[in-house]
Amino acid sequence: MGTWIKNVQVTRVVDGDTLKVMLNGQREFLRLHCVDTEESFPCGTKPVTNAGIAASEMAIQYFTNSQGELTQVDVEFDGDEPLEVCLEKYRDTHGRIICYVYKEGENYNTWLIREGWSPYFIKYGRSIFYHQQMMQAEAEAQAYHRIIWDPHTNQNGAFRNYELLMSWWTLRDSIIQDYRQNGIRAGVLSVRLDYPKILAAAAEEEWITIFCDLQDGVTKWIGSGALIHTGSKDHILKLWIPEAKNDKNAPIVQLIQKRYAGLGRGYVYVSGKAVMYRDKPEITLTDLKQISDFCPTFPP
Cα(222)–Cα(91) distance, rounded to whole angstroms? Predict the structure, then answer.
């Protein structure tokens, strides 16, 4: 069981998997862990679908009580750290809190999967506490052709290719599992989970190994150098590849773009000396050995 917050007031239902709530006197967004309902309005590369529009309408009804008011919910994190740690640690790239939500004791995340509103979404790693329950819920929804698993739901409209996506998510999840089992024990720092430690290492200009997601590839070119941003808007780590078009460093860019970016592996171990540059931690990459699919063992 994870850390809980009880009786949190919902102030807005954004869509099937995102709520706005009042928490500690502030309005916060909750992004439901391990679920991903389809879109009800244009958002990035994901298509708007019939299932997405219906999911938003369903969620409004689900979180509205008999008096027509939005309900209170309980929130659980996928970890048992102190609350103040959880509120810092469990956030996505947009700063939204990642959690499970309960209404009257029912785990809404698992319910969404079982009823066919969402696949078991493991792109960013499987559930630590409810992996088996969510796997079973997804299998049940598929067996009974519920919502997104029914081809008639999005017939004659946009749809998501789950056959392709789920294979990719499973690859990414397997890499995260390796990090959880081996990387953490070896002292590898996660950009999302260990940002204060990365800042401290950069202040001392220490050699570290980090676990990060390079799905977006090269962010921009600055002169002859390539800049990569990883992490979130509040937890940014920069990777800098100087002279990125010369014979020595161009292969680093090619490896990142071909192996990790887009529908590639995404997650990677990066080693290097961390420094602070313009108030953000940064690692310079000049050697292919600084990038690895496995927890590195070579010395600095």
Answer: 30
Query: Structure pTM?
Result: 0.90
Q: pLDDT for 126-152, tens place per residue?
A: 999 999 999 999 999 999 999 999 999
More confident position, 45 or 137: 137
3-state secondary structure the chain: CCCEEEEEEEEEEEECCEEEEEECCEEEEEEECCCCCCECCCECCECECHHHHHHHHHHHHHCECCCCCECEEEEECCCCCCHHHHHHHCECCCCCEEEEEEECCEEHHHHHHHCCCCCCCCCCCCCCCCHHHHHHHHHHHHHCCCHHHCCCCCCCCCCCCHHHHHHHHHHHHHHHHHHHHHHCCCCCEECCCCHHHHHHHHHCCCEEEEEEECCCCCCEEECCEEEEEEECCCCEEEEEECCCCCCCCHHHHHHHHHHHCCCCCCEEEEEEEEEEECCEEEEECCCHHHEECCCCCCCC
Contact 183, 210 (CB under 8 A): no
* pLDDT of amino acid 298: 46
